[in-house]
Design goal:
Blueprint (H helix, E strand, L loop, with lengths): L8 E2 L5 H9 L6 H9 L22 E2 L9 H16 L12 E6 L6 H15 L6 E7 L2 E2 L2 E2 L4 H6 L6 E6 L3 H18 L3 E6 L18 H8 L3 H11 L4 H21 L9 H5 L24 H15 L3 E5 L15 H5 L4 E3 L4 H13 L3 E6 L2 H4 L4 H7 L1 H4 L9 E7 L17 H4 L5 E3 L4 H18 L2 E7 L31 E3 L6 E5 L2 H15 L4 E5 L2 E3 L3 H11 L2 E8 L4 H11 L6 E6 L17 H12 L21
Parallel strand pairs: 1-2, 1-3, 3-4, 4-8, 7-8, 9-10, 9-11, 11-12, 12-14, 13-14, 16-17, 16-19, 19-20
Antiparallel strand pairs: 5-6, 13-18, 15-17
Helix pairs in contact: 3-4, 3-13, 11-18, 13-15, 19-22
């Protein structure tokens, strides 16, 4: 093999030959059994445990990938960039200093925007003089299911890219191919620069079992490919070297028998038994507790933005593995100043700017996590996340699921989002679409509303990443970044001091009152609006308790239920959209838990957020919250004492 078992490999679903060859380098490996167990969805399969048919094994340095086309390229480039950074920072890296990252993909994948962005990021980094030891292996069989790749296209697209070494070989000539492959791998290892290895090959039997290629290929084309069979080409080389043909056939048949015997042996092997076993890799393995800051805590009250900045500063000081990066986060300190001064205090190796490409930013984080780092990337606006969501869904969240936890993605993604931003708005700077995040299994979503919670939640997310490999999104309400006042101008009541604590994932914060008549369940900007409404209600004799969810995934339903059972009435205040919003999950949780009291939900409209004053027409307002709260407080209890009514109020607007 031109690569080593200590070279991390991210393989697409046609790289079975690489997996078998890599296994041959590690004594005791059983590649035939491994692959068959994956195809048969068996629970003892060494990487996914029957959850998916992927190539992967922790002992072989093969990191499993999903079938999402090209989605693993950003991670591969991120890992290549992180290797040097990890050693520079003195971090315990699981890969050797001279490791080469191997990333394979098909010829159709090179057209995908994810591949184009990842390769562009690699070249951009190399252009700036950063080490990027990645071997990009394009296995070119000429087809994307039924769509042919134009002859010469891959070479034209990548054969003369500045900064990208290009090496081509034909699999039907194994001797020349071996020379080219060895040259490419050695060049990456020596120069620490990206190399594009273009391997031309053939595809037999169609794309998959259901794909009858005779429907779109002529018979003579299919027959011509058999003349390019790399197995026959290898046999010819062996015969020319003096090996008896009978011996070659005997070796081939011996492998066939090994496969047949192993298949029969595995016929009755166990499969996954129940939902709990299937979902086991998605469960956080411990309640993480990280280091607490020894100073700078309990000082002057801060805004939300100041608290996030101070907490990042503390975390960077306490843990050398933590890195902070994204668009404009370095010298500028972020478009809202949230990362201001961090690059100066902690250096450009730990706080740095990236290319303007959200897929690549998340890929850099996913790769950094595999190199022993704890990445905290920033996505500048929630609306900018949507073109890169698959890096969280298809790559980040699935890695522990499809590796039984052998590989994880320790990462905290900071995202500025939600609405109500004044003077600088419009859809792309005011976005309240969070449904896609709450829909990803295993993804933790935190949303602090005030400074003390921001510090505690961020500390918990980073600790979960560092100790448990957790993947979190830290959603920061832009409109609350610099808010100081709560009830009146100059009152300073929205400022808060950091107490230096953590907050257990999935626990709410309650703003209690004596003998509450209703409970308002909310988050983000809704906390401010609900507290202001609660004060006005108190002036007319209605006592309302406010519960800040803080965690949007997993929802803190135990705390919510405890609160609503005290008051007997629930008002869900949801600043996100009515359809797919956070409130849907809260209401469902209340009903499924058997809460019998009246429930009312108010939410923003199913609309994009327009520019200027028009935004008020579609966003939830304090007036709507107060009107619904007054209605709910006066709602009769039917059929018994408080909390026993089956009534669930509707959500129509007046």
């Amino acid at each position: 093999m031109a690569t080593r078992p200590t070279d991390p490999a991210l393989l697409h679903y046609r790289s079975g030959a690489f997996y078998v060859a890599r296994a041959d380098q590690v004594p005791g490996s059983t590649p035939v059994r491994d692959v068959l167990q994956g195809l048969m969805a068996l629970a003892d399969e060494p990487i996914a445990g029957g959850r998916h048919k992927v190539f992967g094994h922790p002992n072989l340095g093969v990191i499993p990938q999903t079938s999402t086309i090209a989605s693993h390229l950003p991670r591969a480039v991120g890992l290549a960039l992180a290797l040097h950074r990890a050693y520079r920072l003195g971090v315990d890296c699981p890969w050797p200093r001279d490791a080469v990252v191997v990333c394979s993909f098909g010829d159709a994948s090179v057209n995908h925007s994810t591949a184009a962005g990842a390769i562009n990021t690699a070249l951009n980094a190399a252009f700036r003089g950063l080490p990027v030891p990645v071997l990009l292996v394009c296995e070119d069989n000429g087809w994307g299911i039924s769509v042919p790749t134009p002859p010469g296209w891959v070479a034209a697209a990548y054969g003369s890219r500045p900064g990208l070494d290009y090496v081509a070989a034909d699999g039907s000539d194994p001797v020349a191919a071996w020379t080219a492959v060895t040259e490419a791998a050695d060049r990456v290892r020596a120069t620490r620069r990206p190399v594009f290895l273009h391997l031309r090959t053939v595809r037999f039997l169609g794309h998959a079992g259901s794909d009858a290629e005779v429907a779109y290929r002529r018979a003579r084309e299919i027959e011509a490919d058999y003349d390019r069979d790399p197995l026959l080409a290898t046999a010819r080389v062996l015969v020319d070297a003096g090996v008896e043909p009978a011996g070659i056939v005997a070796s081939y048949e011996a492998i066939r028998r090994e496969v047949d015997v192993e298949t029969e042996r595995l016929r009755d092997a166990p499969r996954l038994r129940d939902a709990a076993e299937v979902m086991a890799p998605l469960t956080l393995r411990s309640e993480p507790v990280g280091d607490r800051p020894s100073d700078g805590v309990g000082a002057d009250p801060m805004t939300l933005a100041e608290s996030i900045n101070a907490t990042l500063d503390q975390i960077l000081s306490l843990d050398q593995r933590v890195i902070v990066f994204g668009e404009d986060v370095g010298v500028k300190g972020g478009v809202y100043g949230v990362t201001g001064g961090l690059a100066r205090r902690h250096g450009a190796a730990r706080v740095f700017d990236t290319v303007l490409d959200e897929q690549s930013i998340l890929g850099l984080g996913l790769g950094a996590g595999l190199a022993g780092l704890v990445p905290v990337p920033e996505i500048q606006y929630l609306a900018y996340l949507h073109n890169a969501e698959d890096q969280l869904r298809g790559e980040g969240a699935t890695l522990p699921f499809f590796s039984r936890g052998a590989f994880r993605n320790p990462m905290v993604v900071r995202v500025a989002g939600l609405a109500y931003q004044k003077g600088f708005g419009g859809h792309f700077h005011n976005d309240n679409a969070v449904a896609v995040l709450r829909d990803i299994p295993g993804l933790v979503v935190a949303c602090p509303a005030r400074a003390d919670d921001a510090a505690a939640l961020l500390r918990s997310c980073v600790a979960a990443a560092a100790t448990d490999g957790a993947l979190s999104v830290f959603l920061e309400p832009i409109a609350l970044y610099h808010r100081r006042d709560l009830y009146a101008d100059g009152d300073g009541e929205w400022l808060a001091a950091d107490c230096g604590e953590h907050v257990p994932i999935g626990t709410a914060r309650t703003y209690p009152v004596d003998d509450p008549q209703l409970t308002m369940i909310t988050f983000g900007n809704g906390v401010v609006m609900s507290l202001r409404v609660a004060r006005r209600l108190a002036e007319v004799g209605i006592t309302a308790e406010v519960v800040d969810l803080r965690w949007l995934a997993p929802l803190p339903m135990a705390d919510v239920l405890a609160a609503v059972r005290r008051s007997g009435r629930a008002l869900v205040v949801d600043e996100t959209r009515r359809t797919g919003g956070v409130g849907e999950g809260v209401v469902t949780g209340l009903v499924e838990a058997g809460f019998k009291g009246p429930i009312l939900r108010v939410a923003s409209e199913d609309s994009f957020i327009p520019l200027g004053p028009a935004a008020a027409h579609v966003l939830l307002s304090e007036e709507e919250i107060e009107k619904s709260a007054r209605e709910l407080a006066g709602a009769p209890f039917l059929g018994g004492p408080r909390g026993s009514s089956p009534l669930i109020k509707g959500e129509e607007r007046p």
